[in-house]
Every structure is written in structure tokens, then in C-alpha cells.
């Protein structure tokens, strides 16, 4: 176990006290030459126990719940098996998935082998300039639960039109809610007696249902052997997931103290940063946060997360701006 270092503030206090008067003029010039930011850049470090392999590789007999049932067995045995409309091993193709089976590690993925089309009802809502008591509108709360969920998604799309803000595109499709192929018989909004006005969250909305054609890919799951040893699998994951690697000898005592503080609570400074914080950001390969227009140079907006390896220990880091910009 390493000896505990004095706190960073205590470590710097003595040195700063001896040079304050001599460097006042230089500091003034330095501050004038660099843009200041009233916010602080906060660093948090969460130590990860174990290996990347233990966290990111699944066992064949215990796959995650978001994998399509039967996909891994089909991929490993080259069985004829397809999935329509969704990726068999997760929604994001840029993130690799791995499985371990009988001493071999496989990267699992999918290829598109065909397409299919079907017609689905799409529910859209549009605002009506009227009070709930002025029009013949039914309360969304009286609809079946199946429809209530659809109304909430369509409402999120309607609310965003013409406004600055985001839309949950994982739920919203084509500006509304797309009903699934199964279960539509439970919907009142799709029936012959469907209302054309509903009241939801204190407002009245016109209801529109359009039946539209959707073209969907057909996927075949695949598996490629990539490693037969734990060390090789760990190296594969490090190459993909670890943003920076450095050791205690690569940083100063003061920078090491920042790391300790970031693991215990959080550490933050405003721009321009201290020499020690700058050195640490460079070691993490986050130079974009140091100079110029911080947010644009960093290309990361207000926050960023990732993985670093410090003294052979993995840490999940969190960099974000806190406070208010003037």
C-alpha cells in the first residue's frame, strides 16, 4: 500500500505562499493571455474491480437478456437462424459483444441477409387550440393501457415540434408511435369507434392514425473466434475500451493527489487550470479541455466518460463542467 500523501491543497500551499508576491505580475499577464471560464471542469474516478474480461465477456450458458433467444446457439453452430427488424446481440453495431465457450472467446455480430416489409399503424398527435371542456375529447386515462403507452410516446413527439429540445428517438418513430405487429386488437385508438380528440396532461390533441409501410432488415447472427487465452482476450478489450494508460511514475506527487481526490470524492478546477491538472489531462489524452474554446476543442460537449488504466488498475472516469457559464 502506498504511503498517504498530504492533501493537494496542503501540498501546494507552502510553495504558493513563497512565490505569490514575486509572481503576481507574471500571473496577471498569464491570466490576461488565456480565456477564463466561470465553470469548473470536474473529474471523477471510479475504480473498477477485476478485469475487463470479467465485465464485458458473457458465458454461453448465461447470455444477457437483451440477446435474442437462440441467437448465440445458432451463431456458434452455424445454424440457419434469422431475426427480423432488430439486431440479435444488441441495438448498437459499433459496440462489440463477446462470449466465452469451451476455452474459446468469440466476437458475436450479425449480417443483413434480406429485407422484409409490413404495414403498421402510426399514431400521431397534434395540438388543438381549445380547453378540454370546450371540445368533445376523451381522457387518455380511460383508454386501455396498451393505448396509454402509445399516447405518451406520441405526445413526446408532439411536444417537441417547433421547440428546442430532444426527442426519445428510441421510442418515437416517424413522428409518433408505431404499433407493434401483435396486440393491436387490444387498441381502442385503432378500432372503428376510435376518438378523434383526446385530453392528455391538461391539453387537447387531435388523433391521427396512418397505416404505413415499413421495410426492415433481416439479420443472421455470426460468431468469430478471436482468442483462446484470457490474456489475449484482455488485450483485445483494452485496445477497444481504454482511452489512456499511465503509471505513478508518469505523474507528479501533486497530480497523483488529484487522482486520489477524484477517486474519493470529485476534483474540479476552473480554467486556466493548474500545472498539475493540465499534466493529468494530458496523461489522459484530454488535451482538448486545456486550450482555447474548451467545449469546441474537446468535441465532447458538457461531459464525457470512458476508461483509463492507472498503475494496472482500471478506472471509469467522468469529466464534466459544473457551475454556470456567464
Explain how this protein is built.
- This protein is an alpha+beta fold.
- Among the domains are: 8-17 and 27-50 and 238-322, no CATH class; 118-216, no CATH class.
- Helix content is 28%, strand content 32%.
- The chain is built from eight helices and 13 strands.
- It has helices at residues 8-33, 52-56, 71-77, 145-160, 230-241, 253-264, 275-283, 294-298, and strands at 40-48, 57-59, 83-84, 97-101, 104-127, 138-139, 177-178, 197-200, 203-227, 242-246, 267-270, 303-310, 313-322.
- Strands 2, 3, 4, 5, 6, 7, 8 and 9 form an eight-stranded mixed sheet that branches. It has a five-stranded mixed sheet with strand order 10-12-13-1-11.
- A hairpin with a 2-residue loop joins β8 (197-200) and β9 (203-227).
- α6 (253-264) packs across α7.
- It is flat, with a radius of gyration of 28 Å.
- Mean pLDDT is 85; it is low at 1-33.
Amino acid at each position: 500500500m502506498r504511503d498517504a500523501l498530504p492533501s493537494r491543497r496542503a501540498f501546494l500551499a507552502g510553495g504558493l505562499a513563497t512565490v505569490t508576491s514575486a509572481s503576481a505580475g507574471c500571473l496577471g499577464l498569464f491570466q490576461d493571455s488565456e480565456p477564463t471560464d466561470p465553470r469548473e471542469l470536474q473529474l471523477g474516478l471510479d475504480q473498477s474491480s477485476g478485469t475487463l474480461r470479467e465485465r464485458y465477456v458473457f458465458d454461453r450458458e448465461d447470455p444477457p437478456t437483451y440477446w435474442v433467444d437462440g441467437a448465440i446457439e445458432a451463431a456458434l453452430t452455424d445454424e440457419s437462424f434469422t431475426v427480423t427488424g432488430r439486431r440479435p446481440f444488441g441495438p448498437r453495431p459499433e459496440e462489440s459483444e463477446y462470449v466465452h465457450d469451451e476455452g474459446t472467446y468469440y466476437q458475436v455480430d450479425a449480417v443483413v441477409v434480406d429485407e422484409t416489409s409490413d404495414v403498421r399503424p402510426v399514431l400521431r398527435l397534434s395540438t388543438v387550440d381549445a380547453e378540454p371542456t370546450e371540445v368533445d375529447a376523451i381522457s387518455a386515462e380511460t383508454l386501455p393501457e396498451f393505448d396509454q403507452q402509445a399516447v405518451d410516446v406520441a405526445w413526446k413527439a408532439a411536444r417537441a415540434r417547433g421547440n428546442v429540445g430532444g426527442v426519445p428517438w428510441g421510442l418515437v418513430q416517424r413522428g409518433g408511435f408505431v404499433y407493434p405487429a401483435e396486440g393491436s386488437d387490444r387498441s381502442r385508438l385503432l378500432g372503428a369507434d376510435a376518438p378523434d380528440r383526446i385530453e392528455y396532461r391538461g391539453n387537447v390533441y387531435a388523433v391521427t392514425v396512418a397505416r404505413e409501410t415499413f421495410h426492415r432488415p433481416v439479420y443472421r447472427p455470426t460468431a468469430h473466434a478471436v482468442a483462446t487465452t484470457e490474456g489475449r482476450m484482455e488485450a483485445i478489450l483494452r485496445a477497444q475500451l481504454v482511452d489512456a494508460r499511465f503509471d505513478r511514475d508518469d505523474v507528479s506527487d501533486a497530480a497523483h493527489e488529484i487522482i486520489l481526490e477524484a477517486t474519493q470524492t470529485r476534483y474540479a478546477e476552473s480554467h486556466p487550470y493548474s500545472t498539475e491538472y493540465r499534466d493529468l489531462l494530458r496523461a489522459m489524452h484530454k488535451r482538448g479541455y486545456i486550450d482555447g474554446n474548451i467545449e469546441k476543442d474537446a468535441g465532447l460537449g458538457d461531459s464525457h466518460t470512458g476508461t483509463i488504466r492507472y498503475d494496472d488498475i482500471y478506472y471509469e472516469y467522468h469529466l464534466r463542467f459544473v457551475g454556470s457559464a456567464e
